Amino acid sequence: MRISVILETDREINLPIQYNHILQGFLYENLTDKDYREFLHQTGYRDGNKVFRLFTYSRLLGKFRMNQQSGQISFQSPVEIIISSAVEQFLTDLAETLIKSDSNYLGQNQVEIKSINVHRNINFGNEVKIKMLSPAVAYTTLQNQDVKYTYYMSPWKSQFADIARNNLLIKHEIIHGFKPENQELKIIPNGNQEKKFEKTLNYKGTIIKGYNGIYWLKGSPELIKVAHDTGLGSKNSQGFGCWEVVK
Q: What are the beta bridge partners of residue 57?
């Protein structure tokens, strides 16, 4: 399930360039069901030691200008955020809360909800061309002597698809109670622009490397749908892995 939320104001929307945590906070703050909000934030859906929130969202979509010196990004009104989830309760609660609110805050910016649009469900086949709306992330934890560190993969490396596929298999089992019969998934970059699409972000002091761009997903329709609903790759609830179909 997927919705688009259009936010407007009579002035610019000023945010820090690294604003993922502000969007995440905006979503959590607009869940009326406090028990469910606390469950998502504190516990989440678990598979062993791995935790999933089963939602993702885009970057803010709209015209903007950046001031690198001040670390600020300024958006012209209106702006759009696309939010996806495999859990209907999450999007239903969020949409109903936003519809009832007279005004809201995005960071320090008072905004109004101009509209909320529900997207049509997509019947995926075994191949789709996609454009990332927020960077896709895949990583592994390595150890050098006594020091552990995070190594981020590029979609131009085969390990990226392996990590993303395993992530989707776990999420599919959490959502449906079983893994799909077809467990194949290939992620094929549309061109050779690895450095152009590489994005390094700072999320609450943690450096995260992800990739924008256009890709082909080929394989299990069931895994493609999970990727659409919950995000491709890791760290989805922190604002990574949201994509749209390229028509």
A: 83
| CB contact set of 32 (below 8 Å; sequence gap of 6+) | 93, 96, 97
In this structure, CATH architecture of domain 127-245: 2-Layer Sandwich (3.30)
Q: Is the model's pLDDT at 146 over the cut of 90?
A: no
Which pLDDT value is given to residue 170?
97
pTM score: 0.95
Specify the pairing of strand 79-85 against strand 104-106.
Answer: unpaired
Give residue for tokens 């299990």: 220
Query: Rounded to 10 degrees, what is the CA torsion of 177, 162, 186, 135?
Result: 90
What CATH number does domain 2-118 carry, 3.40.50.2300, 3.20.20.100, 3.40.1080.10, 3.30.70.1890? 3.30.70.1890
Reply yes or no on whether the pLDDT at 102 is more than 90.
no
Amino acid at 140: T
Rounded distance, CA 83 to CA 46, Å? 21
